[in-house]
Amino acid sequence: MSKLFGAFLVLLPLVAGQLNRAAKEDKKLYFGSATDNPEWNDTEYVRILSNTANFGQLTPANSMKWDATEPEPGVFNFTGGDQVVQLAERNGQIMRGHNCVWYNQLPDWVSSGTFTNASLLNIVENHCSTIVNHWRGKIWDVINEPFNDDGTFRETIFFNVTGTAYIPAALRAARAADPHAKLYINDYNLEEAGPKATAMINLVTALKSQGVPVDGIGVQGHLFVGEVPDSLESNLQAFTALGVEVAITELDIRMTLPATEALLEQQKQDYFNVISTCKGVSGCVGVTLWDYTDKFSWVPGAFPGQGAACPWDENLNIKPAFFGILDSWQ
Ligand SMILES: *[C@@H]1O[C@H](CO)[C@@H](O)[C@H](O)[C@H]1NC(C)=O
Ligand SMILES: *[C@@H]1O[C@H](CO)[C@@H](O)[C@H](O)[C@H]1NC(C)=O
Ligand SMILES: *[C@@H]1O[C@H](CO)[C@@H](O)[C@H](O)[C@H]1NC(C)=O
Ligand SMILES: *[C@@H]1O[C@H](CO)[C@@H](O)[C@H](O)[C@H]1NC(C)=O
After folding, report:
1. For the residues 60-78, what does the mean pLDDT come to?
2. Would you tell me how many other CB atoms lie within 10 Å of the CB of residue 116?
3. I need a labelling partner for 55 at 20 to 30 A (CA). Which of 10, 312, 317, 326 fits?
4. DSSP E strands, the chain
5. pLDDT over 70 (residue 15)
6. Is there a cis peptide before residue 77, judged by omega within 30 degrees of 0?
7. Confidence label for 115 from pLDDT (cuts 50, 70 and 90)
8. What's the CATH code, domain 3-329?
9. How far apart are the C-alpha atoms of 76 and 131, rounded to whole Å?
10. Nearest ligand 3 atom to alpha carbon 156
């Protein structure tokens, strides 16, 4: 018993460092995590994040969003985003840029501005072109969350002023700024079959038929324990059938607190199912956690009473979910 336990303790550091390595053995590009600059005063957090055996890719949670990157018209601030890129380069990690056009976390001059169709399209093009050019060679969420859950276009400032014209404008500007960037449209609740997934299929079909550059569909994967949709696999297949790649871009699987042993076991199974699904779809290139630890998860702030959504707990220790991910890649 104590001998076995000793062997387990010796092996633990080995198994605790393989999520990205195992993903790459399955011909995926990466297994990664979102991260946010204010978290980096936690040296243990950064040490785990920088272990490329586990994490081969980073997404900046906030520091490339519009309010951070263009706080005043035409005045760009790359400081926070540059720091994430430097960390990724130092570690040898792939970057997903996040994001060019989203209705949220906009500076006031955009969210409260008065525009003509032409002037706002110009602003969108200049914004996307400038940030994609500054951070070249990346995967980019060019368009983030364009849809309502019923499949209609979200009535953002961009949609209200330009109709859907902002979407091809942003994608074309991004392509012109960096021909090698991978250009994604990213949204949530694309895991289940229904009007939102259908709307994404229709949008990408229309864009491709018009020669608009689009390389990928990002399936965010903000899920609830015990409720991973069975349709995830058929949706990923339907997306890749359009001639684009897919990625799970913001995975976390939350629960109603307190976390119990049973819920953590179910969560392990849910992570296993999501990763196995990506593994089984050849056009699914990678999976990104929306931060790897409950210590810095956005979930408790966004969903009061819920949490424990990540594979590492608040003390940076691995949870059963870690082994759900590892088992599925292996
Ligand atoms: C990091 O900074 C935050 C405030 O920005 C603080 O709450 C936290 O205690 C700091 N953590 C460490 C490990 O110093
Ligand atoms: C640019 O962004 C950094 C990081 O968020 C911030 O500390 C700095 O104050 C900003 N610079 C300006 C001129 O706003
Ligand atoms: C867009 O228009 C709709 C319908 O008129 C309105 O409800 C919504 O507040 C507008 N959105 C913005 C960001 O102005
Ligand atoms: C905005 O302009 C573009 C062409 O530049 C056009 O395709 C689109 O229909 C216009 N949108 C609206 C709401 O008029």
Report:
1. 98
2. 10
3. 10
4. 30-35, 57-60, 94-101, 139-144, 182-187, 216-219, 222-224, 245-256, 284-289, 306-307
5. no
6. no
7. very high
8. 3.20.20.80
9. 9
10. 13
User: In the predicted model, is pLDDT for residue 204 greater than 60?
Assistant: yes
Q: What is the pTM of this model?
A: 0.95
Atom 10 in ligand 4: residue holding the nearest Cα = 162
User: CA torsion sign, 290 to 291 to 292 to 294?
Assistant: negative
Ligand 2 pocket test, pick from 77, 78, 85, 134 with the greatest ligand atom count within 8 Å of Cβ, gives: 77
Looking at the predicted structure, is the pLDDT value of residue 12 above 60?
A: no
Q: Are strands 139-144 and 182-187 parallel, antiparallel or unpaired?
A: parallel
Q: What is the CA radius of gyration of the chain?
A: 20
Phi and psi torsions of 258, nearest 5°: -80, 150
Confirm if 251 and 290 have CB atoms less than 8 A apart.
yes
CA–centroid distance, residue 249 to ligand 1 (Å):
27
pLDDT digits (tens, 9 = 90+) for 253-268: 999 999 999 999 999 9
Ligand 1 pocket, 44 CB below 6 A?
no
Per the rule left: phi > 0, alpha: psi between -120 and 50, beta: everything else, 163 is left
Provide the residue ranges of all domains of the chain, joining segments of one domain with +: 3-329
Nearest ligand to the CA of 120 is 4
